[in-house]
Specification:
Order of helices and strands: EEEEEEHEHHEEHHEHEE
Strand content: 15-25%
Number of helices: 6
Number of strands: 12
Radius of gyration: 21 Å
Helix content: 10-25%
Distance between the termini: 41 Å
Shape: elongated
């Protein structure tokens, strides 16, 4: 076995009271949570007097803005956060195109990333992050803002002014991102829905693409939640 954590008080995440137990880890998997008096491992950690628990999940993170220059994410890992949900508030770094690459580059420069933007599709972006290696687990949203910027339109452009060609390209970007592993399409409602007239029921953009991945129209039940960030805070709608 790889790691044995001894003598800790386990909080297993089920709501049970703390209980004394050892935790055995092998091949990146927890294989035993019980008293293991005679067990051995390549690394043994004495957790006496400490709590052993699952890593925390940060449901609204912007680590995707800094992960390129801070892949070890020490500020969150050291607080016990091991999974972060990123791509929030409708702002993201993929997909990119010749129309948006300068915009994405300049934003990442603000967070001290001096490297090139080597990705275009959402899948290529996830591959770039994976190859870089990170301390935390990352769950990704595809951002409405990145989709719009990739076809050359920003928050000042209303849906009624978007061309059919631009809409078709955005549909393809959303489809590709969902197939690559994005969990949701996320809007920043303050920028788009409330002030720019973007409609959640816009059939060409949502109903024809995202519905195929489990999200249905705004007047029906959502099977997969559509994330809205009206004023910078995440609000889930649906079951």
């Amino acid at each position: 076995m790889d790691i044995l954590i001894r003598n800790g008080w386990v909080a297993d995440g089920t709501g049970n009271p703390l209980y004394p137990a050892d935790v055995m880890i092998g091949d990146d998997r927890i294989v035993a949570v019980e008293r293991l008096h005679n067990a051995q491992a390549a690394r043994i950690i004495d957790a006496g007097g400490k709590i052993v628990c699952p890593g925390f999940i940060d449901c609204h993170s912007h680590t995707d803005w800094t992960i390129h220059t801070n892949p070890t994410v020490q500020s969150t890992i050291r607080q016990g956060v091991t999974t972060e949900i990123v791509g929030n508030c409708g702002m993201g770094n993929a997909p990119t195109s010749d129309l948006s690459r300068e915009y994405v580059t300049n934003r990442l420069r603000e967070y001290c990333y001096e490297g090139p933007i080597t990705w275009s599709t959402f899948a290529e972006y996830l591959d770039a992050i994976s190859q870089m290696g990170t301390s935390c687990n990352l769950a990704w949203f595809v951002s409405h803002g990145a989709i719009r910027e990739s076809v050359g339109i920003g928050s000042s452009t209303k849906s009624s002014d978007v061309t059919k060609e631009q809409m078709h390209t955005m549909e393809n970007h959303v489809r590709e991102a969902m197939e690559a592993g994005a969990y949701e399409l996320v809007f920043h409602a303050g920028d788009y829905l409330r002030t720019q007239g973007v409609s959640l029921s816009d059939p060409p953009f949502l109903d024809r693409v995202v519905i195929r991945f489990g999200i249905v129209g705004p007047h029906e039940d959502y099977h997969v939640p559509l994330l809205l960030s009206p004023f910078g805070y995440s609000t889930y709608r649906g079951s």
